[in-house]
Amino acid sequence: MKQSIPAVRTGQHSLDQALSAVKQNLDQITGQARGFEKLAPLPSNATLSQVIERLNAIAERLQ
Known about the structure:
Blueprint: H1 13-30, H2 48-62
């Protein structure tokens, strides 16, 4: 399991805010954030419907 991105404290408030937002988004996309499940790999024999469902889940996290 990959570890989440550590919090960054640069001492510059605006930079810390920007980096915190990036960290939060990446943690959500990767499933590291609370309330977000990790997306399990699809089996090699996944149906087209399963692939579309997974792509939709990824797209939803990216928006």
